[in-house]
Design brief:
heterodimer, A: 244 residues, alpha+beta, Alpha-Beta Plaits, 2 domains, two-stranded antiparallel sheet, two-stranded antiparallel ribbon, B: 304 residues, mainly alpha, three-stranded antiparallel β-sheet, binds iron/sulfur cluster, transport (chain A), metal-binding (chain A), MauM_NapG (chain A), 4Fe4S_Fe_S_CS (chain A), iron (chain A)
Chain lengths: 244, 304
């Protein structure tokens, strides 16, 4: 009898120990999986900030919570512009992006990519492609831009679907030759759609004009900065008789 | 039969010999072959779009559009999006409802054995294990997958991002084939190695949150596997060897059991138990089939 009891007890002991061991193991696994995943997902956000998203994409954080990585936008794009990111690509795996230097967005009037998106990570309210903000073009290297060298390249200017709106040529006296003008490509960030046609067409080996995601291309004035509207403020100060 | 086996060691190592002898090669592999055809057909339906321009199914297993009208979405990714606090377009939600409806009817883990591409890899791993007679090295609890499911749904609340979709091997395969995004396949390689060398059936039967969710969806399904001729069982254990969720077989083969249906929704309805059973104990059936519902208690001696 006592023999059986002790046997039972030992069996129970083993079970309890096993139970505790498996529970401990399980919690360890879950903890590690959770930590690992969270690290990967949060770390790769600041690491991959250069992905240019399709038209109408929500701000990056919202986009990443909404996109189900189905590729319907990719399949809807008639120009093969969009790609789904691979691991270690420029964007979180499975999400759509494009590389303007290879294939820019052709700015379809009917925006098929946005229409195809079932998750709303591409904003369905976007109905005019000219309102899209895939990124902002930035003339990033003035040194190698042919127009900055006093030549008349103008390729980026001429390929822009919003010519003379999103990109203009600003005339400036050429100090080097003293009697020529320079035509400096200048982007209006309020109108540029980030389609990337300028980056695609730029004649230099490495594009000197590049589309950057909005959050990288744009600075932000501090909320307390009262000199945001310089002209107004200056006038105001003059009117009040303050010294500048 | 055991004596015969020990006389010829070659045939003793060959699994499901009895079924092949009794039912022929096709008879002993029917559902395996049909499942592979089904898995590859679904993949082909997606693939003829990008490769041949025939768009019957657009997208991938995460979300797709059937014939340009009917949305179909993976309920797990849809839940993750909702958990992350984003309210998606109605088509995504509708697609998830349709998929839940289909699998609630057909059996939840029908997805696992008849559609999911990862299943081919994990089945291969288990086949290699059998061939090499690898010993079981460690055990992990079966219900870990439900904790995984919980984790996958909690992380979007904490991070605001659908974290699991970074790794989820199910769409990884489809993205690799349909969108040329093959670099995610390392996830699959890890699963293969894990299943082959670390824990038997580690991924599909212990960890996969998609399988866990489909198992929950399948709880209400009328389609079941039933041990309609359990009295003919000769305890060869072949079904136990081949079943990815062998715990579901115990209740129906237990001595004195009067319950013919495999009610445990972890059953993937793969039908391998039907294939490998020489006396044809198992069959696909539905829960309301009255022929099976009041069976005489088993008389087989139990060695389980
Ligand atoms: S607007 Fe047209 S070209 Fe641009 S990404 Fe969408 S579908 Fe492609
Ligand atoms: S269609 Fe929408 S949800 Fe699908 S991959 Fe494109 S952006 Fe993501
Ligand atoms: S990205 Fe370049 S081409 Fe496109 S709108 Fe902006 S300036 Fe024009
Ligand atoms: S358990 Fe997961 S990976 Fe395995 S077959 Fe089911 S869905 Fe696919
Ligand atoms: S019981 Fe049969 S159908 Fe169910 S998982 Fe096991 S082998 Fe497959």
């Amino acid at each position: 009898m006592s023999k059986i009891n002790s046997k039972l007890a030992s069996v129970n002991g083993v079970n309890r120990r096993q139970f505790l061991a498996t529970t401990a193991k399980a919690s360890c696994v879950m903890g590690m999986v959770g930590l690992g995943l969270t690290t990967v997902s949060t770390q790769s956000r600041p690491l991959d900030p250069f992905a240019i998203r399709p038209p109408g994409a929500l701000p990056e954080d919202d986009f990443l919570s909404a996109c189900v990585r189905c590729g319907l936008c990719v399949e809807a794009c008639p120009y093969d512009t969009l790609k789904l990111a691979r691991w270690f690509d420029g964007a979180p795996t499975g999400t759509p992006y494009f590389t303007a230097r290879n294939i820019p967005c052709e700015m379809c009037d009917d925006i098929p990519c946005v229409k195809a998106c079932p998750s709303g990570s591409l904003d369905q309210k976007l109905d005019n492609i000219d309102d899209s903000k895939m990124g902002i073009a930035v003339l990033i290297d003035e040194k190698n831009c042919l127009n900055f060298r006093g030549l008349r390249c103008d390729v980026c200017y001429r390929v822009c679907p919003l010519i003379d709106k999103a990109i203009t040529l600003v005339l400036q006296r050429n100090e080097k030759s003293d009697h020529h003008a320079m035509f400096l490509p200048t982007i209006n960030p309020d109108l540029c759609t980030g389609c990337g046609k300028c980056e695609h067409a730029c004649v230099t080996e490495q594009a000197v004009i590049k589309v950057l995601p909005r959050h990288i291309a744009m600075g932000k004035a501090a909320a307390h900065d009262t000199y945001q509207h310089t002209e107004e403020t200056t006038l105001e100060m003059l009117n009040k008789g303050l010294s500048l | 039969m055991n004596i015969k086996h020990s006389n010829s060691p070659k045939s003793a190592t060959r699994f499901a010999n009895a079924a092949v002898n009794e039912l022929g090669w096709w008879g002993a592999h029917r559902f395996l072959i049909l499942r592979r055809i089904s898995q590859l057909s679904v993949l082909s339906l997606f693939a003829i779009g990008p490769f041949l321009g025939l768009w019957l199914l657009k997208g991938n297993l995460s979300t797709s559009l059937l014939l340009d009208t009917i949305p179909l979405s993976d309920p797990l990714v849809t839940l993750q999006v909702l958990m992350s606090g984003h309210w998606p377009e109605i088509s995504l939600l509708l697609g998830a409802v349709i998929i839940v409806g289909i699998y609630a009817l057909l059996g939840g883990r029908v997805f696992c054995s008849w559609v999911c591409p990862v299943n081919i890899v994990t089945d291969l791993a288990s086949w290699i294990r059998r061939k090499l007679s690898l010993p079981r090295t460690s055990e992990i609890p079966k219900n870990l997958r439900y904790y995984m499911l919980g984790l996958v749904l909690i992380l979007p609340i904490l991070t605001g991002v659908t974290v699991w979709e970074w790794l989820n091997p199910v769409p990884v395969v489809y993205r690799a084939i349909l969108f040329g995004a093959g670099s995610g396949l390392w996830v699959l390689a890890v699963i293969f190695l894990l299943d082959t060398f670390v824990v038997e059936r580690a991924w599909c039967s212990h960890l996969c949150p998609t399988g866990a969710l489909f198992s929950l969806i399948g709880k209400v399904s009328p389609i079941k596997i039933a041990a309609i001729r359990a009295e003919a069982c000769n305890n060869c254990m072949d079904c136990f060897t081949v079943c990815p969720e062998r715990q579901v077989l115990k209740p129906v083969l237990k001595k004195g059991s009067i319950q013919p249906f495999i009610l445990d929704s972890d059953c993937t309805l793969c039908g391998r138990c039907i294939d490998v059973c020489a006396p044809r104990v198992f069959q696909y059936t539905n829960r309301f089939n009255s022929n099976n519902s009041n069976r005489i208690p088993l008389k087989v001696e139990s060695k389980l």
